[in-house]
Amino acid sequence: MKTEIVRELGQPDILLPQLVADGLAANDRIKLRLSALQAAVQHARQPRANVPDLAMESRAAGLAPAALVTLIGGAHLAGDDKVVAPGLAPLLKGIEGDILAMIGAAAAGNPSEGQQFEGRLASIRSAGHLEATPEIEIARVGRLTGVEHDGPDSLHRLVMDLHKALNRLAASNSEEVIAGARVFGVQDADRAPIASFMRGLNETRPLKFNHPGLDTTAIRAGDRLVIQNDIGTTDAHVIVIVVTASVVTITYTDVHLARAKFFVSLFDECSLKWSGLDKHAAAGLEDDGTFYLVTGSYEYGAPDDRDELLAAIGSSLVFLIDWNKARKLLRSWVAKTDAVRILEWAARQRVGHRGFLELGGSELLGAAVRSAAPTRIGFGERLDQVLGREPAIGFLKTCLQVSTEALREGQSSRLARDRIGADLVRHLDRVDSELLAMVLRQIGLARDVAALVQQAVSMIEPEPTLVRQLAERAGRIERKADRIAIEARAEIARLAARPVIGDLVDRIEQAIDELEQAAFIASLAPGALKPEIRSALGALALVAVSATEHAASGLAAAAEVQEGRRADSEDALAAVARLMDAEHQADAKEREITASVFSGGLDLAASLGALELARAIERATDCLASFGHLLRRYTMSDLSA
Fold it and tell me: Rounded to whole angstroms, how far apart are CA atoms 113 and 91?
């Protein structure tokens, strides 16, 4: 009645703050009612599902929860395309009344715009979409709640446009600005919570860079302080915070369920009680233009606790802008869950993802791949398939951090790209290190076999049973080495590693095969050998043992070269030189043994045994020398990189 009297007095401007506050409250009620309508359809289709508890959302919107719970729980199908629910007609009337309140507020501030809204509502009414009936077509629910950008107008689209209009009115008619928030009708006690929210918001606001959004309005509506932020540019992406004397209530709407869950996860350490319709909002409806609503409630004891939560809420909002865009981009490089994990890290570390998108996002990563590893990462290949899961996550975190630092510190985008490319090279080098570690395991087994051969040929009076046992052990080691070689080749192929690493695997495998053959021959050869031949065979086997040790030390040093420790290149090249010397020593010993055999004094079996044993050991050292040449090539390629 007082409102009408003021209008009659010709002073509607006086009413505008209250009308806007009432319109914003009506917006909250409409969203809850639409969500309840969608939940009723879902329950009618799946009657065994639990009825959601809407007590928290209802209290935040000022509605009685029992009516909505009864409506959803009593919903059932009437045929294949209709739903019957208790209280459905009053709910539809309530939606219409709320939208009239929003239009009235919009018209008070901008009459021409109000007329346009009234015309749109008239069209929706004439189509029968708001007809208050005890049953409703499922398709009509979709038309009421849908938000198709290129489709026909809908009630939900009208509500969102009205919401924007009311926000503009609230901002343009604000009485003052508190820390960047446009406010009106606030009390002295409201200033601290508003300032706290804005403190958090302004701490992270720079991380949105050139993206629009994060405009805040605050209004006193009866016993409630209402703080609202538009977040970004998505129509249904809004947060409304209601502060009362003892409770902070967050109402958050989003078109992306994953982002809504992400938002909730940011407050894991807070004592917020969450309730939402996220599991019911869009399921089963033909129209996918729906939104998800989640409500959080926090009962605080002291104003400091309230203000701490408000600051946390404000600081979190920038990380929601373009979140889904960043998630889609990242999941083309790593698994979906890991993409969200990276974004959570970026939010908690106050790094964000907007800088990464600002510098090109996918193109930024593509440039790094083309520059650092054009042959190792194929088109469409995920980073976690090449680098491994944790290294890929670590690299992408670095990309986000480098991008943010570059923009905040005024660095060139070229420098950011170079830093990201260098980090990718380091990660790929670590992949090489893991592969080289497998080769090092091979070399260790090669030394074990060489030591067994030396033990067998150095016996003054060989015990046939013991020599056979040594040969059998060498066979088992050789089979283990084969498995490592197979695994290494599979990893090299999967990771598209440098071909030279595969060559290193091949050479060590060949050396082990020759040494195992030598152990086998030693188990067959008769014990009646000249002392000088047995001594020479022992010395030759010792050369093979030393050669495996040189190979191991050289490979370990070469692995350090790629990590930036270029001084280790000298150790790697020195080990290569020792491998060459070992091969020459083995050649000399093998010829010495051949000459002794041809000098006579041995039967045929002993002669053949000594010759074949010496040749097998010498061929193993040839393989190790070839390994050395490959190791030199690998080391020099790292030095020239």
Answer: 27
Find tokens 């939104």 and name the residue: 291
* DSSP secondary structure letter of residue 282: S
Query: Cα(first)–Cα(last) distance of the chain, in Å?
Result: 82
In three state form, how does the secondary structure of 84-152 look? ECCCHHHHHHHHHHHHHHHHHHHHHHCHHHHHHHHHHHHHHHHCCCCCCCCEEEHHHHHHHHCCCCCCC
Cα separation, 157 vs 143, in Å, equals 10
Pairing of strands 82-84, 216-221: unpaired
pLDDT of amino acid 599: 86
Positive or negative: CA dihedral 481, 484, 486, 492: negative
Extract the tokens encoding 278. Answer: 């996220």
The contacts of residue 334 (CB under 8 Å, 6+ apart) are: 342, 382, 383, 384, 389, 392, 393, 396
Tokens describing residue 95: 């939606």
What is the value of pTM for the model shown? 0.61
CA distance 185 to 174: 8
Strands in 335-379 per DSSP E = none
Which bin fits 213, alpha (ψ -120 to 50), beta or left (φ > 0)? left
Helix (H, G, I), strand (E, B) or coil at 229: strand
Query: What does each C-alpha distance from 158 to 126, 240, 317, 393, 545 come to in angstroms?
Result: 15, 19, 25, 42, 83
Closest CA to 573 of 623, 630, 632: 632
Q: Is the pLDDT of residue 562 over 60?
A: no
Strand partners, 248: 243, 298
* Strongest mean pLDDT among 99-108, 247-256, 271-280: 99-108
Tokens 């929706």 belong to 124
The residues facing 241 across adjacent strands are 227, 250
Please choose, from the candidates 557, 570, 551, 553, the residue with its C-alpha nearest in 3D space to the C-alpha of residue 623. 551
| CA–CA distance, 584 with 580 (Å, rounded to integer) | 6
